[in-house]
Amino acid sequence: MSNERITKKLTFKTFRFNAETDFLPYFKTYEMEVGKDELVLDILNRIKWEFDGSFSYRRSCRHGICGSCSIKVNGKPVLSCKQNVWDLVDIFNTDTLLLEPQSKKRVVKDMIIDKNDFWSKHSKLKPYLVAEIEEHPKEEIRILPHEAEQLLEADYCIQCGNCYYACPVVEVNEEYFGPAQFAKAYRFNADIRDNAKKERLEEVRKMGPGVWDCVKCFECAEACPKDVDPIGKITKLHNQIFEEGMAQNNVATRHAVGFKHSIAKHGLLDEGELVRYSEGTLGVMKHLPEAIAMFKKGKIVMPWNMPKSKNLDEIKTLVKSSSKVKF
Amino acid sequence: MAKLKYALYTGCTARESTPELLMSTMAVAKKLDIELVLLDEASCCGASHLQDFDDFLSLVLNARNICYAEKQGLDMVTICNTCQLNTVLTKERLDNDENLKSQVNEKLAEVGLEYNGTSSVRHFLYAIVDDYGLDRLSEQVVKPLSDFNIAAFYGCHNIRPSYLHKKYNSIESIVGEGGGEEGFAKVEMMSKYNSGENPYNPSSLDRIIEALRGKSVDYDSKNKCCGFHADLQAPHTANKLTGTALLDAIDNNADMMVTPCPLCHLNMDVKQDSVAKEMGRDIKLPILHLPQLIGLALGIEPKELGLKHNVSEPTFV
């Protein structure tokens, strides 16, 4: 083996914009030889150091802990200091990579975005331990391993914002808290020392900002560089709302519970009945135009023709014996 | 090559609001000589909503569905992205947690069933791409779709989270028991040469379109969410997501859209009028289920593909 360094010649199409001076954003192209160990953060540094000193981006720890340096490469949210460049070349099968900020509409300069909405929503869900702690305790608070494990991976979040800016609901609903915020709420709700579980659930159960507006697209789970699985924690918050008896009687909770009723009756889901049960008899009227269009096309099954699973008795038995949650 | 045979988990939608999906799936399978055994015993997968309410019950029910494929010694195929995800989420948890598996099996024992983890679970789309093969599919084409620009819409639950997609969707069925180190090594090895999908730039549907001689449309929204799961509780969110994707396809000259997911199909196909109101623009785009598109290219009669059930009328046929 020679000591010669093996490199790939890559092109980086890079988003540039200065909110103070530019009318429109533009892309600048930088070409460089990239070694197999280089990370996206190395590329950002090299653009600044070798090409254009005015290029701006956030960076700090370089150890995957501070969460500052997240950007998008070819649409994929990455933590720059953790993401190997050759891996991206493999994944996208290309030697041209597109470097963009996490959210173009929030750009201040180049890769730097205004994360104000992220932080203000974050602080609304009490992202800290709420507990009466004695100032001079005589002994430590003991937490058993199985109690600590309840936090799951939620404790690993570094607030990089990858999930938040990948979430399609955040894009269309300004009130929506967002996946990182929910994961953090779960992290403290699952902590046995904490006393603010109900206060957090009070917030996250709200229609509009809360967990019921999640579209379950798994963009957050895919975007997270720490495998926090935010949508898994969103599901846990849904579960807590029911377990704590805090589920309000509304279209979202009935939508979840309606599945159980339908399965207990038919095995399969009775789609029409689910909509009627969730919306209520009056609310269902707003679906009338679509229902008529579907009926004309033979897409509506009449109650008397509702198909049922074979061996329905088994399903009835299992629903009875396995179901513990109350509504 | 041995005849392909699978247990088909239809899900609820194919039995109710999208009868055309089941019809076209069966017609295409017959044409390609793939045997599909209907799992009539199966229940609803919970569609992620039962999971929000009663997680354990959803595990038991999904495990029961898989049991019926295992009993026949068949691998399971799904024709709904959400069924696919909820089934493999269950499988993943049970195969990696002996304690949870025995809790579930304790319940299943009440009805004389046992979950073992011996059947793999994948979407019919990937059975066609990987097991049947696109070259073979291409040879069967009698009505090339060469006049059409076709927008592929992938649907979230087939491609995300990608670790589950890679483990279950993109490989040939794993021999023997899933999970464990040995299973994982097999997955690693096999996903190298099979169609592991990049969730940020998926390609399988586009490759199918090309195999059918159609022109696949390049547009940003193909891997995005249609918002179906928030249709009732957050209709504006859902309509905006559906509308953004439809208009993106239209603005990139799509003549039609194709999707492997009946839930995406419902949003894209049935809701075009209310979505158009939300977006303030006219929206008219025929939306086909994947097997309907394949069926047309294979020369299957539109009647057998249930095209009369599509709300967005495919007038080009």
SSE map:
The complex is a heterodimer of chains A (about 325) and B (about 325).
Chain A: E1 7-16, E2 26-35, H1 40-51, E3 70-73, E4 76-79, H2 85-92, E5 96-100, E6 107-109, E7 112-113, H3 116-124, H4 145-149, H5 162-166, H6 168-172, H7 179-189, H8 197-204, H9 219-223, H10 230-243, H11 251-266, H12 271-283, H13 288-296, H14 312-322
Parallel strand pairs in A: 1-5
Antiparallel strand pairs in A: 1-2, 3-4, 3-5, 6-7
Helix pairs in contact in A: 3-7, 7-8, 7-10, 11-12, 11-14
Chain B: E1 5-9, H1 19-31, E2 35-38, H2 49-53, H3 55-71, E3 76-78, H4 81-95, H5 98-109, E4 121-123, H6 124-139, E5 149-152, H7 156-159, H8 162-169, H9 180-193, H10 204-211, E6 215-216, H11 235-251, E7 256-259, H12 262-270, H13 272-279, E8 287-289, H14 290-297
Parallel strand pairs in B: 1-2, 1-3, 3-4, 5-6, 5-7, 7-8
Tell me what you see in this structure:
- The complex is a heterodimer of chains A (327) and B (317).
- With 327 residues, chain A is an alpha+beta fold.
- Chain A has 14 helices and 7 strands.
- In chain A, the strands form 2 sheets. Chain A has a 5-stranded mixed β-sheet. A two-stranded antiparallel sheet of chain A has the order 6-7.
- In chain A, 41% of the residues are buried.
- Chain B is α/β, with parallel strands linked by helices and 317 residues long.
- Chain B has 14 helices and 8 strands.
- Chain B has helices at 19-31, 49-53, 55-71, 81-95, 98-109, 124-139, 156-159, 162-169, 180-193, 204-211, 235-251, 262-270, 272-279, 290-297; strands spanning 5-9, 35-38, 76-78, 121-123, 149-152, 215-216, 256-259, 287-289.
- In chain B, helix 3 packs across helix 4 (81-95), helix 3 crosses helix 5 (98-109) and helix 11 packs across helix 13.
- Chain B starts with a strand and ends in a 20-residue tail after the last helix.
- At the A-B interface, helix 6, helix 9, helix 10, helix 11 and helix 12 of A face helix 2, helix 3 and helix 11 of B.
